[in-house]
Amino acid sequence: MFTKAKKSLPGELVQGTLDMLILKTLCRGAMHGYAIAEFIESTSDAILRVEEGALYPALHRLELRGWLAAEWGVSENNRRAKFYRLTAAGRRQLAEEASYWTRMTAGIARIMETA
Fold it and tell me: For residues 27 and 86, what is the distance between their CA atoms, to the nearest angstrom?
C-alpha cells in the first residue's frame, strides 16, 4: 500500500524551528509579538507564517526558560504591548540552535544531492 507524502502548506514552519526564529528575530532588538510574527513573514517573503496560537505560547515558554525578558510598553500605534528582548542565555541558546540547524541542513542537502 502506498501513502502520499504530506505536502506542506504555504507558510507552514518546519517543526522545531519556531524558537530559533524568534531568538534570531530578537537579535535586532526588543519587539512585541505582532512585530516578531510580521518580521518573520516579511523577511521570508511570506514563505513562513507564525500563527498567534503558536507564537504567544512560544514567547511565554522562552521567557520561562530565561532566554527572553519582557516588559510592557507602547507600540507604534499607541497600544499597550509586551516587548520581548533576548537575554545573554538566549544568545547562547541561539548559537547552539543555529549550529545544530547548520549541521542538519548540510546533512539533508548531502542526501538530496545524491543520484
Answer: 7
Residue 39 near residue 109 (C-beta atoms within 8 A): no
What is d(CA 50, CA 47) in angstroms, rounded to the nearest whole number? Answer: 10
Kindly state the cell numbers that stand for 15.
517543526
Query: Phi-psi region for residue 97, left (φ > 0), alpha (ψ -120 to 50) or beta?
Result: alpha
Distance CA 25, CA 21 (A): 6
pLDDT surpasses 70 at 88 = yes
> How do residues 1-20 score in pLDDT, each as one tens digit?
333 334 445 555 566 789 99
**Residue written as grid cell 504591548:** 81
